[in-house]
Amino acid sequence: MRILFISWLFFTLFFQILFGSNTVLISGQCLNDQQSLLLQLKKSLNFSSSSSTKLVLWNQSSDCCLWDGVTCNTAGRVIGLDLNNESISGGFDELSSLFSLQFLQSLNLAFNRFNFTQIPNGFGNLTSLTYLNLSNAGFAGQIPTEFSSMTRLVTLDLSTLFPGIHPLKLENPNLTMFLQNLSELKELRLDGVNISARGSDWCNAISSRLPYLLVLSLLNCDLSGPIDPSLLELRSLSVIRLAQNDFSSPVPEFFANFRNLTELDLNSCNLNGTFPRRIIQVTTLRTLDLANNELLEGSLPEFSPNAALQNLVLSMTKFSGTLPDSIGNLEMLSRIELVRCNFSGPIPSFSLSKNLTNIDVSHNDLTGEIPSSHWEGLQSLVNLNLGYNSLNGSIPVSLFSLPSLQKIKLSNNKFAGQFNDILNVSSHKLDTLDLSSNNLTGPIPKFVFHLQGLKILSLSSNDFDGSIKLSVIENFKNLTTLDLSYNNLSVDATIEVEETIEEPRDDSEDPDDDEDEDEMEDKTFHGRYG
Question: Which residues lie within the region annotated Disordered (predicted)?
């Protein structure tokens, strides 16, 4: 029996190896008409052969279902086309062979250069599409009415990143007409599209037609406020990105009622009033961006230990009060930016927030010390900016042992005392060190001169003293900015001349040259910085 079983297993594996791959290939082999349509499409498109990684490899001698960017079903029909970032330029019209791919379910033409040409009406022929991405593809003008024929769309992305420019617009049809047959949408991204609608209009258009919507992204769409309560009908909304619109109104408290809310981006919306604290306490919230709303007031509540917050961005607002200790218990926290707010009091410990990469709380009125225990274990921290506050005490040298740290900015505080030197400097990635405008004393510690990756070193306006060898400064190969002004430092500019073989003297040389060389051989310049 054992021999029979082994024999059966051997022949099973043998036939799978011999015929299995061919079987898969046959079931998905590209149909001739599909390959012909794709080759016609390639021929009609202008693209850079040197930049293309997909189109340039399409050829008649291979199965089109194996081409990069092409997905087929088991019948050999093309159902997916990904030509993202293929350096396509120019445009194509509604007669393009693209619109004859009737079984296409997914189409990605993002990040190409269609040179501000109109979106062709032919997209209305692709009625099987569930995914369409034309973001940053270079299209312009009115979005065609024919889009309403793509009734199976689940994801639609027409976003553009041109700041202050609206290449695409929704005028006729307007947003209401545009969405009337797209009830299956779960993701709608129209960033940069000129919609020009009032709060009640755009909110009602979306809430009445897109019952399954999960992601709503309408950055820089020329929308106005106030944000209408009808939006609350979209109970499943998870991502709300409405930045760079002029709402000129308070933030509605009903945002706290979205049970699955993970991202709320209201950056640069001219918001006013007091921000509802209940929204910050939504436990599913990962990203909250309220930056650049200079009239928006608020304060931070205590955070739940199971909060999912990763990104907290409140820069350039009127948020005030103290930073709660519980903010340092947010284990998922990655980015905290509170620049130019009105926060006061001490900085809490972030030692439990092991995922932190960026801390910027500069330009506030924070006080107290920053002991080394606040920063223990922050292995991923890249940027630390505590500048322009009223912090005091000593600067913990343990900061320079954080392995990922690239920027330390502690300027314009009240830090005082001498640095303790350290032997093990792990901050080999550090490119910026700004300790200017403090009350630091003593010699500049030697470990600073071992930070060989520094591009910016600013220690000005302190009370550092002692002498610095010019040769040590020359070791900074990447240094672009050095500021040691307004200290009590001197620079040792000794030039060491290596012994060389004496050349026969040319009698025509100036006899005074010998005296000049003797003087330069051991000359020390003491530059005073203070």
Answer: 496-530
Burial of 435 (0-12, 13-18, 19+ CB in 10 A): buried
Nearest to 463 by CA among 481, 485, 447, 448: 485
Comparison of pLDDT for 48 and 265, the residue scoring more: 265
String of b and e for 412-421 (b: at least 16 CB within 10 Å)? bbebeeebee
Q: Which of 333-347, 490-504, 507-521 ranks highest by mean pLDDT?
A: 333-347
Q: Are strands 88-89 and 46-47 parallel, antiparallel or unpaired?
A: antiparallel
Cβ contacts of 131 within 8 Å, gap of 6 or more: 105, 106, 107, 108, 153, 154, 155
| pLDDT tens, position by position, 95-119 | 799 999 999 999 999 999 998 899 9
Residues 240/212, Cβ–Cβ less than 8 Å? no
Predicted confidence at residue 163, as pLDDT, reads 65
Distances (CA, A) of 246 to 196, 225, 273: 11, 7, 15
Dist. CA 245–CA 455, nearest whole Å: 37
Asked whether the beta carbons of 256 and 279 are under 8 A apart, the reply is yes
Mean pLDDT of the chain: 88
Under 8 Å between Cβ of 484 and 461: no
User: What is the C-alpha separation between 48 and 177, in angstroms, rounded?
Assistant: 37
d(CA 189, CA 187): 7
The span from the CA of 422 to the CA of 420, in Å, is: 6
Signed CA dihedral, 393, 394, 400, 401: sign only? negative
Task: Supply the pLDDT for residue 162.
Answer: 74
- SS3 category, 368: strand
* Amino acid type, 317: T
Q: Is residue 230's pLDDT more than 60?
A: yes
Distance CA 296, CA 293 (A): 6
- In order of their start, the domains of the chain are 259-343 (no CATH), 369-530 (3.80.10.10)
> What's the pTM?
0.86
Residue 5 scores a pLDDT above 50: no
Q: Are strands 88-89 and 383-385 parallel, antiparallel or unpaired?
A: unpaired
pLDDT range class, residue 511, cuts 50, 70, 90: very low
- Show the tokens assigned to 270: 């001219």
Distance CA 347, CA 365 (A): 10
Which backbone phi and psi does 270 adopt, to 5 degrees? 55, 45
pLDDT score for 166: 77
Would you call 56 helix, strand, or coil by DSSP? helix
In residues, how long is the chain? 530
d(CA 348, CA 410): 16
How distant, in Å, are the alpha carbons of 49, 83, 138, 181, 268 from that of 55? 8, 8, 19, 33, 40
d(CA 231, CA 111): 31
